[in-house]
Amino acid sequence: MPFSVEFFPPKDEAAEARLWRAVRTFERLGPAFVSMTYGAGGSTRDRTVRITGQLAAQTTLLPVAHLTAVNHSIEELRALVGAYADQGITNILALRGDPPGNPLGEWTKHPDGVEYAEQLVRLIDDLGDFHVGVASFPEGHHRAIDLDHDTRTLVDKLRAGAEYSITQMFFDVDDYLRLRDRVARADPEQGNKPVIPGIMPITSLASVRRMTELSGSVIPPDVQERFAAAAGDGPEEDREAVRAVGIDFATEIAERLIAEGAPCLHFCSLNFAKATSEVLERLGVDMTSVLPVASAAR
User: Fold this and answer.
1) 155 domain residue, yes or no
2) Which of 104, 158, 259, 293 is most buried, by the most CB atoms less than 10 A from its CB?
3) Catalytic residue numbers?
4) pTM to 2 decimals?
């Protein structure tokens, strides 16, 4: 089963060392691609460009660079695409992006920028021979009026030239399947393009609750109860028990997605290798080549 991994730009040297340990672990497993996120408002722009370039030059991995429209003029966006091209990077994930400071806050277009991800896709496509992906949202984007509006937005991005989408993390496989069906009904041609499900092995209940609050997604009550029971009633959650449930849950989701014909599994690694590696091992990926380095924590 093809899989891919999402990284984010580290904030300091220690975090960068941890990232590279994870990179080398995953490199041995042969992911279809790896992506590098881009901070709200371009807050990690320089690190994103630098490290994505290093992934292209110093590893055997295929890097996909995230690029967001927020707080950037068209001139700056063109320069960033050019910076990626100069490093041999031709795969870009085009995102409108979240407002800096408060992802759920009001989104304001740069006076000389673009309003929608669809426009960013067209801009990248006009600049050269790039392979462009976009984001999709199984529960619907929190800014969408309804699911029909969300579906039309995704179809517009695909019609603009995006070759695939990667979903926001979700907790109910049925939400993913309904998204896939909505796109196919809205436009059968675009519905043939891959919808890659995003998965994150949960190792901290507090962290995932915070992430869902910032993304506008919802943890279903039965899933909440399952993780809450593992966390316990003490002042600090039982991280070991939560992690064990998180590995089980991610594996269950992955197994069903494979059975339902998902084209690839995209793991949000949080720059750690161990949790995702454990899920991959349960899915039957040969881990013998990475066992000496797979203890890159978490």
Assistant:
1) yes
2) 158
3) 6
4) 0.92
